[in-house]
Structure formats: structure tokens, C-alpha cells
From TrEMBL:
The lineage of its organism: Bacteria, Bacillati, Actinomycetota, Coriobacteriia, Coriobacteriales. It comes from the Bacteria. Pfam families: VG15. InterPro entries: VG15. This is tRNA nuclease CdiA C-terminal domain-containing protein.
Amino acid sequence: MIDNDLYKQHLDSLAGMDKFIRAEVAFRIDLANSALKRGISLTRTTQMLYQDLALGRVRNKKIASSIALKFYKKQREAYGATDGFEPTYLGDVPDQWLFEDFKKTLVAHKDGTNVDFDGMKNALGGRMAHYALKAVDATIIGNAQRDPLHPKWAFVPHIGACAWCIMIGSRDFDFKSEKTASAERHPGCTCPVVADFDTKNPHLEGYDPEGMCARFKGIAELLGIDGHSDEDWHRMVKEAEFFDREWLRTGKPFTPTYESKEAEAFKAKDPDHPLEFRTATAMAKRGLAAVFRIDEVQDPKNKGITYGYADLVSGVEIKNLSTAGSEQTVDKHAQRTKKKRGFKRVCFDFSENEGFTDERARAAVAQAVRNRNLNGAYMVNHKGEIEFIPHSK
């Protein structure tokens, strides 16, 4: 078991490292911008900036080394290891990585002889922090591979982690190589890699890999796939974008909510909102994100024009079809829905429609999906359960 206080200290250290590196990069970029304004050529300025960043990477290496080794050694001590194994720093990234990223960032923020240095801060700061975090990963994993105690390691999604990270985290303390752990870290990811020396019962408070795996399997069932192939996993991750992240991570139940107080006040004036809220409640029970937004926005330059948006922040438009009497009605809703801004998916609610059986409703939604070339649709059946209707020929 990983000591929770030790883990929290490690997270604080990682957060401090990230903040320091980003601030350092911003400072170096400000110096470059100042040099350019003083008349130093753009070529020379960018060369100086790259040299500063290269030196910064060396400094960051020392920070990453200190954090990784401190965490690893304290874990060994807590476990009571007395075998004399001495962990060493094993993390680094090739110079070519920084060079290529610097070139790409410069090109993306350069317009002729002008450079948007402020715009480069977040991009380069994020990349430099990413390098350091991968160095921490490599040190923890590399030592775990060499350690005679053979600790297990895991990728732990933090609060707010994306669907990809949660999927990786669902694999538990079961990684066999660095390739299957930190190598899958995406740019901007700050989820930590941890090692546990209690190999028979590895555990970290708040980390629920079995639950995460079960919830992803639930997505596979919703999609009608077995979820075993890489292609299936990528489909599941893509579908997970419609699900509540914290529910995916922890399984904690939630209820529909609003993006802001203004959105709540706006929706309170809509006579159809109680029905929308009921549908959103059914979605939330299934783990689907249910955050309402203001779905009608006036053009600031022309108050006579109003733009319609999807009901939910996730891009889902809710259509309650309790009074729909024909397949044509379903199709028309699909046609209008597709035109809304931010639209990604529609959810048709037939739960209180006495004229449609579930079988007829599925057929009507499937036909509308084909007619309007939608990427599938959700449907609430008469049991109040969410179904997924795919696009099929």
C-alpha cells in the first residue's frame, strides 16, 4: 500500500515543479521579446531563446531527479527495505525533442518577421513541463524494473483527468514495461506514475482501477462491442467524451447541473426544461455528462439573429418525444438538431410515449440517424434506460 500522505507530498512536489518550469519559460520568453524590441535580430533572438531553454532543460532535470528519487526512496523506506539497492536518476529526453518542438512552436506563432511570444509561453511551457514529468516517470519505472523487490507500478488519473488517462489508469498495477505506462502520457497530462512495493496487495487510496475498468466495459456494452481490441478501446475513449469525467474516475453518482447561474436562470424560463431535466437525469444515471448551458444566444452585432446551441455542454441535444406520433417527427427533430452549434450527439426520449414501442422507437431513430448522417444517437427507452443507436447502412 502506498502511504497517502507520502503520495500527497509527491503530488505537491510535481505541481510545484510544473509551476516553476512554466514561470521560468515565460520569463525567458519575455527576455527574448525584450531583446527583439531593442533591435536584436529575430534570428539571433530565437537562437538565444533556444539556448536558454536547452539550459533550462538541464536545470529541470535536476528538479525531476530530486522529486522522483525522494518519492521512490521514501517508499522503499516505508516498506522496510534493507537490501542495499540504491535508486538512481534514469530519466531524460533527447535534445532533438526540444529542438523539434521549438521549431514547430516558432513556426506556429510566427507571421513574417513578427513573433507572438506571449502565445509561445503556454505551448513551450507545457512541453518543458512535459519533458520533466516524463523524466520523473522514467526514473520511477526504470528503478522499479531494476529493483530486486520488483515493485509494481501504475498510472494514476487525477481529478479532472481526461478519458484517455482514465482508460490507461484502469489497467491497474499491471504494467510490464515503460512503453505501456508513461509512454502513453499525452502532452499536457499531469497524472502521476507510482510504484508500490506491496506486490501482493498494491493499493492507493482513491485509485479505483477495477471500477474504472468496469465503467469502460459499460461503455463497450452501450456501443455493442466487446472492448478487447485496440480499435474498440479507441472507440470507447472517444465515446467517453460524452461521459462525466469524475464518474468515469470514481463512479460517484451525480445529478444534472448548469454551466452557470445565468444558464440555470435561462433554463428556468423554458417551459420544456422539466422534460429536458428528466431526460438528463436518466443520462446522469448512466454516467453521461449532464451540464446544461444557455442554448440560445443573440448575435452581438445583430440582435435580430439568434443562434441555437446544443442543450448540454457536452454537445448533446435533448429531444423529448413523449407526444411524437410518427417516424417523420423523429426525422425532423434529427434534421433540426444537426444544425445547432456545438452539436455532437442527440438523445431521443421515448420513455413516456405510449404510441411507440421500444422496437419501433429504435427503428425510427436508426432511420433518422441514417437519413441525417449522424454519428449515432442515444435513446431513452420505456424503462428509462439509455441505449445507443449506431449509424448503420
